[in-house]
Fold this protein.
Amino acid sequence: MRYLNEKNNLLILKCILIKNKPMKTQKLLFTAFLLFIFIAVNAQKIAHEGKEYHVKGDKIFLNDIDVTANLTTQQQTSIKNKLKNKLAREERISAAEKATKKAEQKQKKAEKKQQKAEKDLKKKKKAESTLSKSQKKYKNDLKKYEKLKRKGKLSSENEEQWLKKLERKN
């Protein structure tokens, strides 16, 4: 019965919100309202002495009946302490999960950084190798040019070609 009343109230409020409001504002207000209702209506469940109690604020319910006055202060305190312990435990678990997630993210970030460093090192080695090869080839070509020039086997055209070739490689 209570669920139907809440559902009807939500439908009525939804109809009211729809009138004369832009669509985004309507959705935002409706979502905020539903969130507020959910938080306000949401009761914390606690099992105590084989019975399941619902705690809403300072009131304790058993099967949707307020039994706060029927319980002794010791029982009330016990139920509320169990609730606090349960909430604290859930909060610690949540914090641990967040910490684990952060650690995993840091680990992934470190792995990516490591991979990038390895890739950069590989590129650097390849560039050094390429440079070494090109310097070696330049020296060989320079020796060959000097040898041909010394022996007098270069014509003026060949000499120009060799000089252009050496200039490109240098």
Observations:
- The chain has two domains: 1-42, 43-169.
- The first strand starts at residue 44 and ends at 48.
